[in-house]
Amino acid sequence: MSYLAIPPLHLLGFIGIMAIWGFNLVMAKWGLRELSPMLLMTLRFGIVALVLLPFVPRPSGRWREILLLSFLLGFLHFSMMFTGLQGIDASTAAIAIQLQVPFASLLAVLFFKDKLGWRRLLGMAIAFAGVAVVAGEPRLADSYFSLGLVIGAALIWAISNVLVKALHELPGWTIAGWMSLFATPQLALGSLVFESGQLEALRSAGWLTWTAVAYTSLAVMVVGYGAWYWLLKRHPVSVAMPFTLLLPIFGAGSGVLALGESLTPQLLVGGALVVVGVGIIVIRRPETTEPNAERV
Questions:
Q1: Of 13, 10, 12, 27, nearest to 218 (Cα)?
Q2: Which residues contact 29 (CB under 8 A, 6 or more apart)?
Q3: DSSP conformation class of 107
Q4: For the chain, what are the domain ranges?
Q5: What is the pLDDT of residues 112-171, one digit of tens each?
Q6: pTM of this structure
Q7: CA-based diameter of the chain, in Å?
Q8: pLDDT, tens digit (0-9, with 9 covering 90-100), for 226-240
Q9: Which of 8, 89, 129, 157 could disulfide-link to 100, CB 3.0 to 4.6 Å?
Q10: Cα separation of 36 and 22, whole Å?
Q11: Does residue 38 contact residue 191 with C-beta atoms inside 8 Å?
């Protein structure tokens, strides 16, 4: 299908979804100013569960997989991602998290007997090189642990995506709703064990923090993924996936514009390398990198 054949409203929809997802890291940074990472995620998944569960069926016979997914994606991925986000710029995180695409492609070889080929291997090498260029910035000298958490979160996302693909017979909303329900108490317990000052943070949280909570749950998950699922029913994955190359652009750009983060030459070069590398992977095998698992 030619991109010229996409109805204008659908084209705007794809771009709008990427803008919503890309801006999520900026909103999260605002939320993390007053709320700890696991507390923020507890609220996020609790809201998603409340909104979705009245409208989705039970995943009969798939409870074990949903529970495992709630731990891998809901607890591990998002705890690592948002804890790491506390220590680095949103623009850096937006670029580094794109390693989930080469990670997903590698896991597709292991679990789905996919074949890499030299082009995708080249794309992976370019993407990893791009993150290495960004990591070489002097301002990140004391933030490698935080950057490592974000990269680790990218790997956990790729593993989670394999599990979601195995649940292909379940609607996306069913997976999201029940996964969110089971992830909420895990994140709440994690917050109680590893974090402190939750009640005081909730009492003193301002309107911007609560806007961030609403955005990360309702805008990103309900609106963003709702529109994504709707568009995927009308367009093949090969048409939809290249739009995800806009994610690091919107993510890094919003960090620079909304948070005043530095637009350094290394960030530009590294980000460009990541987009090129991920683009090669996405164009060669879009199905293996489709974001079935919630990305941001």
A1: 27
A2: 85, 90, 255, 259
A3: H
A4: 3-289
A5: 777 778 888 999 999 999 999 999 888 888 889 999 999 999 999 999 988 888 888 888
A6: 0.91
A7: 55
A8: 888 888 888 887 788
A9: 157
A10: 21
A11: yes
